[in-house]
Amino acid sequence: MKIDLANPAWQQTLPPARSVATDAPVAACAFNRDGSTVAFALGDGSVRLLPADFAVAAPEASAPLHKGVVLSLVGDPAGDGFVSGGDDGRVLRLAADGTATELLAQKGKWIEHLVAHRTGAVAASAGKSMFLFRDGEVREFGPHPSTVAGLDFSKDGSRVACAHYGGITVWSLSKEVVLPPRRFAWQGSHVALRWSTDGKFIATGTQENDIHVWRVAQATDMRMQGYPAKVKSLSWTADARFLYTSSQPVFTAWPFSGKGPEGKPPLQYGDEGAGLMTVVAAHPTAEFVAGGYDSGELQLGDIRTKRSVVLKMADGSPITCLAWSPDGFKLAVGNDRGDLLTIDLRR
Fold first, then answer.
1. Whole-number CA gyration radius for the chain
2. Nearest CA among 215, 194, 159 for reference residue 281
3. What is the average pLDDT value for the chain, to the nearest integer?
4. I want to staple 209 with a disulfide (CB 3.0 to 4.6 A). Which of 10, 119, 141, 227 is the partner?
5. H helices of the chain, where?
């Protein structure tokens, strides 16, 4: 990906974009497996599907699929569509044409978190349980000590980690060899979770405005403090050298190469003044990161040059989700007002 943030063109003009306005807040966004379609999960129960190609006209909005708010959304790793979860307790598989198939119904529970793995598996949280969808089967894992507040697959897809009150639980997904879950304890509520892209670390954001990180093999841990708000968004760089976190006024990345971040300050860069970051998303292959603010501003950062540029000006509506296309050239953005934005970074 060739982007030079020192180029005056990046500093002076905003990149090409397509914007669609809706009347419902956006909870999540995602691209499908081949990057041809981008989807947005909305507060009115609908999932809006848009062509990633700006030359193709955006279709009209379809009827709501969920009876309530759509809370979570991922690209379907086993098809050309998406998987969505709602506060109606349903998990739906959506085809590229928008038709839906129900995978799970858990009355009275919210499907707040979904994650997908390239092997074709999808995991969902529902109350105190985690559900795994793979090869046409559904398996339940749990119960956990409290509602599952975050989950993620290991690098190879053989395990899923779940965040909850008092720490995290790691489940082996093998059906041939049944292993007991591993418990990693740390007092308090854990509100977000991301497994590192090299499989060595699991990071969580906590209720105490800090982040906690475990070394998986050694089961040792570390704590990084000093945030002004709860860290609800975590994103590892593709090479796992840095962990980006939200809830700071600038890009904040903890170094995990060498001996790790213990006793070291985080790498911070970018211009202050836009507010606090609500969501961060590291690029899938390159050393860039996108950060959305509670003011509505969107920035792109380059960790090599410590430069940043504005991709979207502040408009007062907090950015709620970010998603990169598989090729890394397009970025989906949703906000609390209901604006659906797709940005093309090729120039």
1. 19
2. 194
3. 95
4. 227
5. 8-12
